[in-house]
Amino acid sequence: MLWYLGRRLLQVIPVFLGATLLLYALVFLRPGDPVAALGGERGLPEAVQDEIRERYNLDKPFIVQYLLFLRGVFTLNFGVDFRGREITEVIAGALPVTFQLAVMALIIEGVLGLLFGLIAGMRKGGWFDGTVLVLSLIVIAVPTFVIGFVLQFVLGVELGWFPVTVGRDPNFYSLLLPAIVLAATSFAYVIRLTRTSVGENLSADYVRTARAKGLNRTQVTGRHVLRNSLIPVVTFLGADLGNLMGGAIVTEGIFNINGVGGTLFNAIQRGESVTVVSLTTVLVIVYIAANLLVDLLYAALDPRIRYA
Amino acid sequence: MTTQFPVTHGNLPLGGDGQAYEAGTDKPLLEISGLEVSFTTTEGVVHAVRGADIVVYPGQSVAIVGESGSGKSTTAHAVIDLLPGTGKVTGGSIKFDGREIVGLPRTEMEAIRGRDIGLVPQDPMSNLNPVWRIGTQIDEALRANGFEGSKADRKERVAGLLAEAGLPDAARRARQYPHEFSGGMRQRSLIAIGLAARPKLLIADEPTSALDVTVQRQILDHLDVLTQELGTAVLFITHDLGLAAERAEHLVVMFKGRVVESGPARQILADPQHPYTKRLVASAPSLASRRIQVAHERGQNSSKLHAPTRGGKGSDIVVARNLTKVFSIRGGRPGASTDFTAVDDVSFSLKRGHTLALVGESGSGKSTAANMVLGLLDPTSGAVEFDGKNIAELSPKAAFAFRRRIQPVFQNPYGSLDPTYSIFRSIEEPLLLHRIGSKKQREKRVRELLDMVSLPQSAMRRFPNELSGGQRQRIAIARALALKPEVVVLDEAVSALDVLVQAQILDLLGDLQEDLDLSYLFITHDLAVVRQIADEVVVMQNGKVVEHATTDQVFDDPREQYTRDLLAAIPGAGLEGAEIAS
Amino acid sequence: MPENRYQTVPGGRAPRRGQEHFAAPFDEGGLGAIDAVRDSDAPSSMWHDAWRDMRRRPMFWISAVIIVAVILVAAFPSWFTSVDPRLSCQLSKSLQGPEAGHPFGFDFQGCDIYARTIYGARASVVVGVLSTAMVVVLGTAIGSIAGYFAGWFDTILSRMTDIFFAIPLVLAAIVIMSLTENRTAFTVAFVLALFGWTSIARITRGTVMSVKNNEFVTAARSLGMGRGGILLKHVLPNSAAPIIVYATVALGTFIVAEATLSFLGIGLPPDVVSWGGDIARAQNSIRVAPHILFYPAGGLALTVLGFLMMGDVVRDALDPKARKR
Question: Which one of B54, B262, B471 makes the best mutation probe of the C interface by having the most chain C beta carbons within 10 Å?
Fold first, then answer.
């Protein structure tokens, strides 16, 4: 187990370095001068541009820039943005609400997705299965932002069940509708994944053996079918945490949440490359960490992995 | 071997209502009459079992024998109400202990399972849930069937059951997971599960066919002792007539969903009535091998019974000299790799026009050796000489030409043909690759090859999924023969086939050898088949050659203990000669 | 069943009731034909079987109709409307409902929604098809090389896949597109493909690794076929099924991703008619005129649904477990 953990941690290092280098290169190593593009049509005075270049190490060779940036990542000091704010503080201000939103969405899609998928998988071919299958396809086909609009309009504006926007003061209740919207697509995927997995496990030999032992239906379903179906679903959910945080940009926009997405979007529109790279790096770290966590969960759920 | 771990007896509580059954009562324990089972598929209704009658008495062992598709497993699954998919009992009755169990409500059937009827399933690899400890899975069986006792009691009982099934160090084993067990150990655990609640009837569905022959014998012996001690009736499901006759007193032979013959085991062997049973008795390799043996003992000339050993001394075409193959296996820890010697200093030679069998259980290195002979794997040391030349030293051009002279046929009839290729394309591929003939000539050759393997020429438009296992194996043979090779490596080429089809293919191979003067390197785990086809035998164990002799020497006068174990493990070895020598 | 069908054979010990030696009548046919080749019906390859299976499913026809319709609309929008989506806008008609010749009504700018929905199909289809094509080529190449050649190739390519996989698709696309000045359908497709190929590479790698262990591959090797030949002639054709299934579904998700980018204003430029852009513009007027949101969103959802359903049908039809024998 320890060796497994160690090996996985070791594998994370090149992935992290590679992914950040890739992002950094895509943002900075490209035709056009990000600084010259600042300040609108007229551009900034030459002296100011030079100062900015020096402050952000843009005058140094690319690889040095990247290494300095990496140092910033490890010391949790990303520097200041073009408006003079500490980027670390900007991130620290935005991260918690997005994290809360993503975790809420994860719980919603996990619990409901497993439940629906289990019922559908147990009665494959039945009316519930058919309905769920078609509805899940529709949910996947309709983009998140459309679902967001519609739910915001119907449940928020027309019916008034939920706050229409979240604003400065997010709480559990006001984040509930955004979390549902954020969860929607993944929820459909979880249903389909669970359904397939349950279907496969139901016809597995060990389930027949369990029934032959004299176990009743509840015991067989819970201890053998559901337990084994959890493995691929948990893998999906873990990897999805990163996707949810990255994808929150749309949901946060619709419900006016001041999270990572909103901050990132503003930074993009203002051309604050350093903030953009810093924020995306944080998201990539979350994503990698979530995947690492999945591997550990996977090992906990599947004893075969533990000793591999 | 099996009494090494004594069976706990005396204080074993009986399952169910606690009634003990005496063997020999006149009240049947299980009475199947006119059973009909069908499956609904997209193609229509398939009748898997058609009017089967089977009776099992308490404490008795009965075997259902049949090939794949005979309905034997379906019958067994109908008894325990665990038919897969769309399977349904559509007629007849199944009475257990005098009570009709067809159509019983789910909860009542759940009460019967485990407690009254136990199941030992076929494949030990897939029948244990990989995520639960072995002990937990046995414990489930105890709890589900009303075992009363504290956690500690159950724990003790679980260990007791495992020990009873022949697993040493049971308490520790109970805490392990299935993937830490070998196939034999898993099968023992499954036996422990099947017998946990002391059922009156145990259904053993090909309980050992996935295991090595020697392990198979140990486990069956153990199961015999156990069920006799407990007075459990056993319903064996098997494809091996020899095994069935050896293990059961009453046989039921099924063919295409019908019972074609049933009766006392020895009587059926000695005096089969139905044409199908006759063919089965004549073809079963274990029995055929035994028959040759009996004939031998009586001093009869056995030449009519198996491929004769050729008188003319052929020259060596393939010589393996001190072949060694070492694989490096990556360990769980970084940098930790262990060397595994799959083939260890193996030498043998194959004479022109002869058949050399490489025999061994899984892990013996026989297939690795075959791949080195085929030039698909480079030996770590040693050499393969083909017609006097070391194949490792051939120039690329000569190596390509060498391919024409030696061709393989593999075990799995479902994996050895590319499913996206038509039969024509599959057989034509070698000709095309080696640029032989024009398009017309190639087509003629394909037709010729199909004739050679006794398939209609119309088969060439078909795709592999439209053919049966035996037919695919014929195609694989045709493809191997396309380039007119001198040597054919038959890597478990008949092991996956049903008995009758296996006999047909063996006949075909014999005929082809005679007509085309082929040399066979025959790789197999099944000594029984070896007797029917090989001139010489090399017995391998753990990568090493254990014994190398002519077939008759190996069977009549084995020198090594391991060879003797293998011979003893052939099902039917314990049968009286007179019964099968008809 | 009449009793005389059975014949009881006299035996040694007296057997118990129901266990007398019994043999069924010998007329049970089929013995000789144990291994006959069917030659009545037409031969069926895997693709043939899949096609036969699909033809029977209503879902196949529904999705096929949707896909064909969408492609026709995207290729020849002028066949379906004579109204120009950009030039015929009249501000006076802003947010008005349907009228003759304008069945869907008008958007905020007073443009005909029907025409805009028709013309919006092209952007989605072009981006979807282009990025899927790129992803399939790139992912299949990388995945099959990693899976087939194993060893160092595999280590390096798999790490590379991990690196690209570690950056969420939408996030990467947002960052890069926001920094791209010349935004066209091609650049959008390229960016989506650049970060979207990893799944298909992983799927291909896994399939190739399992296919290459088949005995027909070993048989081809013993014929003297080279590694490249085996990969192209045997391994890849047998790995095609999961790739096709994934590609169909990926096409749908790329269309959604493009719409998301256009919705955020960093996908296609505003002068290109696209469903994502129209949905974005509709959000301001949703309270007064929900219908402006409905049509572009409906067109988008229907298109994606068509591809997703097709993916489902193809998956079921190609499922090896569902195949005969």
Answer: B262
Question: How does DSSP classify residue C15?
Answer: P
Name A216's Cβ contacts closer than 8 Å, sequence gap at least 6.
B107, B110, B144
| CB B488 within 8 Å of CB B519 | yes
Spatial distance between the Cα atoms of C208 and C241, rounded to a whole number of angstroms: 11
Percent of chain C's residues with pLDDT above 90: 19
Token digits of residue B268:
């059926």
In a domain, C289, yes or no: yes
Q: What is the pLDDT of residues B435-472, one digit of tens each?
A: 888 999 999 999 999 988 888 888 888 888 888 888 88
Could you report the per-residue pLDDT of A60-112, keeping only the tens digit for each? 777 888 888 888 888 877 777 777 778 888 888 888 888 899 999 999 999 99
Same domain, B476 and B506: no
Question: Per mean pLDDT, which range of A194-198, B328-332, B458-462, C68-72 is the poorest?
Answer: B328-332
Kindly provide the ipTM of the predicted complex, given to two decimals. 0.82
Q: Are residues B189 and B234 in the same domain?
A: yes
Q: Evaluate whether C298 touches C275 at the Cβ level (below 8 Å).
A: no
> Is B509 found in the same domain as B499?
yes
Best of A137, A152, A165, A293 to disrupt the C interface (most C CBs within 10 Å) is A137
Q: How far apart are CA C117 and CA B456, in angstroms?
A: 59
DSSP C16-51: PTT-S-EE--TT---STTTTPPP-SSPP--HHHHHH
Q: Do B273 and B333 share a domain, yes or no?
A: no
Identify the domain boundary among B251, B283, B315. Answer: B283
Q: Are residues B206 and B336 in the same domain?
A: no
Mean pLDDT of B128-144: 91
Instruction: Give B563-581 as a DSSP string.
Output: HHHHHHTSTTTTS-HHHH-
Listed in sequence order, the residues at least 6 apart from B568 whose beta carbon sits closer than 8 Å to its beta carbon are: B217
Q: Is the pLDDT of residue B580 over 70?
A: no
Full domain range(s) for residue B382: 284-405+485-582
Considering only CB atoms, B465 lies closest to which of C16, C219, C323, namely C323
Contacts of C179 in chain A (CB under 8 A): 26-27, 30, 34, 268, 273
Q: Evaluate whether residue C29 is within a structural domain.
A: no
pLDDT band at A36 (very low <50, low <70, confident <90, very high): low
Nearest chain C residue to B58, by CA: C16
Q: B395 and B509 in one domain?
A: yes
> Is residue B291 a contact partner of residue B578, using CB atoms and an 8 Å limit?
no
> Which of 191-230 (C) contact B at CB < 8 A?
214-216, 218-225
Q: Which of C129, C128, C136, C60 is nearest to C310 (CA)?
A: C60
pLDDT in tens, A221-278: 999 999 999 888 988 888 888 888 877 888 888 888 888 888 888 887 777 778 888 8
Whole-angstrom Cα Rg for chain B = 26
Say which CATH number the domain at B368 has: 3.40.50.300
Q: Test C44 with B465 for CB contact under 8 angstroms.
A: yes
Number of domains in chain C: 1
What are residue C12's phi and psi, to 5 degrees? -75, -95
Distance CA C23, CA C6 (A): 6
B470 and B504 share one domain: no
**Count of domains in chain B?**
3
- Which one of A209, A215, A216 would you mutate to disrupt binding with B, by most B Cβ within 10 Å of its Cβ? A209
Q: What is the CATH number of the domain that holds C295?
A: 1.10.3720.10
Q: Could you tell me if B235 and B94 lie in one domain?
A: yes
Decide if B3 is inside a domain: no
Cα dist from A4 to A11, A291, B178, B508, B520, whole Å? 11, 14, 19, 52, 46
Cα separation, B41 vs B59, in Å, equals: 38
Chain C segment 294-323 residues within 8 A of B by beta carbon are 323
In this complex, how many residue pairs, one in chain A and one in chain B, have their CB atoms less than 8 Å apart? Answer: 99
